Amino acid sequence: MSLATKKIDKSGIKKIKQEENSASPKAWFILACCLSFYLYEYILRASPGVITNELMADFGISAGSVGFLIAFYYFAYVPLQIPCGVITDKFGPRKVVTTSALLCVIGAVIFAESNSVFFAQVGRFLIGAGSACAYICSLKIASVWFDKSKFAFIAGISMMMGTFGGIFGGAPFAHLANIQGWRSAMIIAAIAGCVVMIISWLVIRDKPEGKKFIPHEGGLLDGLKIIAAKPQNWLIGLYSLMMFLPLCVFAELWGTPYLMQRFGITNEIASYGGIMVLIGYALGCSVSAKLSDYWKSRRRVMSLSVTCTFIGFSIVLYAPELSFHTVLAFMFLSGTASGFSILYFTAVQESNPIKYSATSVGFTNALCMTSGFVFQPLLGKLIDYSWDGNFNEAGAPVYALKDYQFAFTAVLLAFLLGRILMIFIKETYREDH
Predict the structure, then answer these.
(1) For residues 373 and 377, what is the distance between their CA atoms, to the nearest angstrom?
(2) Confidence check: pLDDT of 157 > 90
(3) Is residue 53 part of a domain?
(4) Which of 146, 218, 316, 365 is deepest in the core (most CB within 10 A)?
């Protein structure tokens, strides 16, 4: 056998091994385990949205204070995104996911047992800190265990799993909280987190066998300087901030009380509005990569996403005399449209060196999650600003439909800004991706 033939054989064998690793059941099992943690932390993130009235009555606070309390999740989550990207690149997802799950459990217990707003804020802060690495670790596994052509698809299904967590944090958690009380429901969630933590340590591996794990070298600023120096990364990150609002503002917090007021329904029934957004978002995320590959464009899909999301939520919020089921249908369609935007993670990953994959994702996710950091308390303040000062028998403020509609105007303006940003974002799609 000639030397040239040997080289070809070795190259072919190497290629086959890479393909086997990228599609192996073990790789998918490890990814599924990491995604189970992402699903779990999303339950903790979204669950307060169905108990806002209980929180206001229990702690004696207003909508603005509830928004500020729940936003403590993001006060930890957002600043930790970039450090978590570097930490994940350096230590691998196994240790990071296990430690993160432990923090979520501790935070859930503190939140459940809190007798003051301060300790409730501490609990939400720890949950946010523990959740910070969830999505980043999923995409790190995607970059290490799978071929790069699968990255956009895995980014989509990863976000889809997160939305499933939001679904469980809706009506199922509302039902559990109504039966057991919201504090007992949070303790049950903490117990479930212990199971996730143990499984994560036993199952997740940082790299395939025979493949050397290459940790991030140098300090935090090495990769960050490269990423932050590109205007493209900032534009994509700001776009992601606008496009996460349907989840962090409507599905996670203010959607349920808005529908309760508009249709005079219980929190369990109203929570289906957020569920429709989440199911739609999951669908949009899962097909975004296929649609992008069909059109051979990231920009086209992202532009379509923000335009249709603006139209859909405008109808949901302001179209008169719509039935509850019609509103649910439009919320599903609007959620689907917003799910297409998940390509912002693919776009930023394609715009930066692969060795900084987790750092670039962390940078984008930091800007993305600023949406909750800013808009959850902002809408609470806007609701309070429009409020006429009435209270119910339990001592909780009673808000009118106009109060919620006034506040949600800020979200629609953000969508318009997102559409303007798309004019300046460059195409990143490549045939060899």
Answers:
(1) 7
(2) no
(3) yes
(4) 365
